Amino acid sequence: MKDMSILLRDGIIATQNQSREIVEGDLYIEDGRINEIGRSNNEADHVIDCSGKVVIPGLINTHNHVANTLLRGFADDVHLHEMLEKTFEFDAKATRRDVQVGALLGCLEMIKSGTTTFVDLFYWEDEVARAVREAGMRAHLGWAVLDEEISTQRGTPLDNCSAFISKHRDEDLITPLVSLMGVYVCSEETFLAGQQLAEKEDVMLHTHLSETRKEVYDHQKKTGQRPIEWLSKIGFLTDRLLAAHIGWVTIGEVRVLAEKDVKVSHCPVSNMKLATGGVAPLPEMFENGVTVSLGTDSPVSNNSLDMFETMKFCALLHKADRWDARVFDAQKVFDLATIDGARAVGMEDKIGSIEIGKRADIAVLDFASPKTTPYDKARIVSHLVYSCNGANVTTTIVDGNMVVDQRKATGLKEDVIYDRANEIAVELFEEE
Predict the structure, then answer these.
(1) In a shared domain, residues 253 and 368
(2) Strand runs (DSSP E) across 40-185, as ranges?
(3) 66 in the same domain as 135
(4) In angstroms, how far apart are the furthest CA atoms of the chain?
(5) How far is it, in rounded angstroms, from Cα 392 to Cα 360?
(6) In sequence order, what E strands does 39-170 have?
């Protein structure tokens, strides 16, 4: 129901405000905004009993290729270049219908696991936008841009991206951006043309960057410079850019990212599954003031779009890599998935925390379960990072509208999506 008032009664609220307060009580939502936190005497169109439940800001996934849910399990246990070869085979056979169904499945998975906002890079991104609207999510979407001579897209990638921006720039929940695939398929001319388009349309830039050793050293062999150094030299690194991965970088490159105010999407599960070998140096990024967020990456390279899983993997990866259990704590990891994710997409004044006046992007989790018992205010954030997964989510609210109620999507026909996704997978891969 559009613009209904909602009262979340008697929960534990992890606000993620500046003081990171944990508040016991009510949360009142009206006209898409958070109106009261603590105790409310307001009546509401919809009242949810949150006793035994924890209320959090909706999670923010800053790097995805959501339509690739149809490839889940199709390219497991292989290196990145082999995975890409398999996905290119899918790209050659996939239709608009396939992209839409894959995107619907991914959006369904995300809202049911507490993600309310995501960043996506794909072709036929207008079909992804259609799925986003049906799911009721918030999304930052970029039509994939790469050099025209190696593209399999119909039309020119940059023109497709420009048309997508023009078509979707005035939507409430969809924010278009310019997404460049990476240095391995984008020339200097393509990068600069993409940047010019982003400046003209006043939108963000998104790209894969320094994900693997091969990417970095192949580019260095080709140009004499590492990717970050090269992009800095051509003037591409700016505060518009959200760069995914940043796994093979030096401390000097981290300082360049900080100087240029480039935002980072860290994708720990994908990077480990593909055995990229490099670990994004998050402690040094934090020390230098780089804004870091979390992404799941594609369902091909992760299999799951569950941001709770990504939070846990993030924490464990860096503890193991640095031989230091204190390298950063659960609160910092939770920040990456909420308020820092909002900063990464330029929306920290609207989402990412539960504060009066902000848009009501909310997830409610059931803590009356074995894996989250015992709990109290002091243990809430640790349980969110180390104990929970998406199955704990009972309610998801985006912009004041319930998109998941009692674990069921309100705007999507779940059984139909499952059936269609399975049918399409058989059509696409029956010869495999």
Answers:
(1) no
(2) 46-49, 53-57, 59-64, 115-122, 138-145, 174-180
(3) yes
(4) 66
(5) 20
(6) 46-49, 53-57, 59-64, 115-122, 138-145
* Residue 128 maps to a domain: yes
Which residue matches tokens 């091969």?
A: 214
Domain of 303, in residue numbers? 59-344
Q: Are residues 173 and 312 in the same domain?
A: yes
CB 241 within 8 A of CB 262: yes
* Residue 75, pLDDT score: 82
Q: Give the Cα separation of 14 and 21 in Å (integer).
A: 6
Contacts of residue 316, Cβ cutoff 8 Å, sequence gap at least 6: none
Please indicate, yes or no, whether residues 145 and 236 belong to a single structural domain of this protein: yes
Q: Which residues contact 89 (CB under 8 A, 6 or more apart)?
A: none
What is the structure's pLDDT at 78? 82
Quick one: which H or E segment has residue 431? none
Q: Which of 344, 160, 263 is nearest to 168 (CA)?
A: 160
Residues of the chain predicted below pLDDT 50: 1, 432
What 3-state class would DSSP assign to 387? coil
Q: Do residue 73 and residue 211 come from a single domain?
A: yes
Same domain, 200 and 216: yes
| pLDDT, tens digit, 9 for 90 and up, residues 9-53 | 999 999 999 999 999 999 999 999 999 999 999 999 999 999 999
> b/e string for 314-344 if b means 16 or more Cβ within 10 A?
bbbbbeeeeeeeebbebebbbbbbbbbbbbb
Contacts of 35 (CB under 8 A, 6+ apart): 28, 29, 42, 356
pLDDT at 2: 57
The structural domain count of the chain equals 2
Count of other CB atoms within 10 angstroms of residue 400: 22
- The per-residue pLDDT for 82 is 82
426 lies in a domain? no
pTM of the model: 0.97
H-helix or E-strand containing 249? none
On whether residue 350 sits in a domain, the answer given is no
Cα-Cα end-to-end distance for the chain: 43
Residue 219: inside a domain: yes
Residues 69 and 26 in one domain: no
Helix, strand, coil percentages (3-state) for the chain, rounded to 5, are: 40, 25, 35
